[in-house]
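May I ask you to comment on the folded chain given beneath this request?
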Amino acid sequence: MKFTRNVYFFLYRNRRFIITWLIITAAVVLGLYFKINKEIITVTVVIFGVIANAFVGLAGLIAMIPVVGPLIVKVLSLPIFWLLNAAGYYISVIAIKRGYGRDVINYRIVTVIFLVGFAVGFVLAKLI
């Protein structure tokens, strides 16, 4: 009985967050079903997510994971993490325009691995 009351309380308290992510998920699925340009879907999701604070709610949900949740949110909100990722995308655009599309794939894989390693290393360093 207590479990169902806790679930109901969680759903009631987070109804706006849950509804927002249901709308985002439905919009993405419908956009892909109707073959809408993926860039348009992405921009729409980002704008809607920022206006509705969907990403803040998602970060709050991740932060609820005991011990590592707050550390993961801290890493993902570090300015250096954002700068490294932004620099990677900027360099990718320049390289693709110059005809190095194949090399960009390898470069982005290495960048993603580096950023994931950066996040895991930060979490492990804080835990130790």
Remarks:
- The mean pLDDT is 86.
